[in-house]
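TL;DR need C-alpha cells for one chain.
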Amino acid sequence: MNVNIDIQAAQRGELIVNTTKVEGHQSTRLLIGTHTDSSARVKKAYPFFVVGKNAETYPELIDRIIDDGHEIGNHTYSHPCVNKQSQAAFREELTRCEEIIQRVVGVHPKLFRPPQGSWNTRVYEIARERDYSVILWDLDTLDWAHTPSENISNYILENVKSGNIILMHDFIGHNSKTPEALEKIIPVLISRGYEFVTVSELLGVR
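>> reply
TL;DR here they are.
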C-alpha cells in the first residue's frame, strides 16, 4: 500500500500481488471483487505482477484484471533468479512475458518486479533499456512462507505507513492464508483513510 495524496488528507496505499503459481488465485479473485464493491467509497486499484506462463494458462483472469481497472506488471516468464542468469536468458524472460501480456490484453507492461527481489546492476540496466521501471517493496508479509493470517494482518496493520508498497502473493501452495488476511487488512486500512492505487499512479510512471 503506498504514497500520499492531497484529497481530504487521505492516505494512499499500494498492494502488490504477485501471481506466481498456476493453482488457485484466491487472492487475485478477492481483490478484483473488492474493486467493484459499491459499499466502500474508496479507490481500489491494485498492481498484479504476473508470471508469463501463468498468463498463458489463465488469460481470462488477466483480462479481468485489466477490465476492472487494475495494473499488470512483468514478473518474468518462468520466475527464475534473474541476477544469476546470463544477459541473453534474462532478456528472453522479459520478452516472453511481455509478449504474452500484449497478446492476451493488448497492454505493454511498464513495470518489472524481479522474482524473489533478486537483482543487480546488470538486471536493472537491461530492464531500463526495455523501458521498465524496476519495482520492489517496503513491507514483506512473508505469506510465501505460509505465515498464519493473523500474523500477516497484524504485521501490516502495525507497520504500514502512507507510501508503503506491501508484497503479497496470489497463491503460494495449498492452504494459503493470504485471502483470509486480506479480508481483515483491506477494511481496516480503509477505515484509517487509506486508498489503494497502482504502482504507476503511486510513482508517476508513464
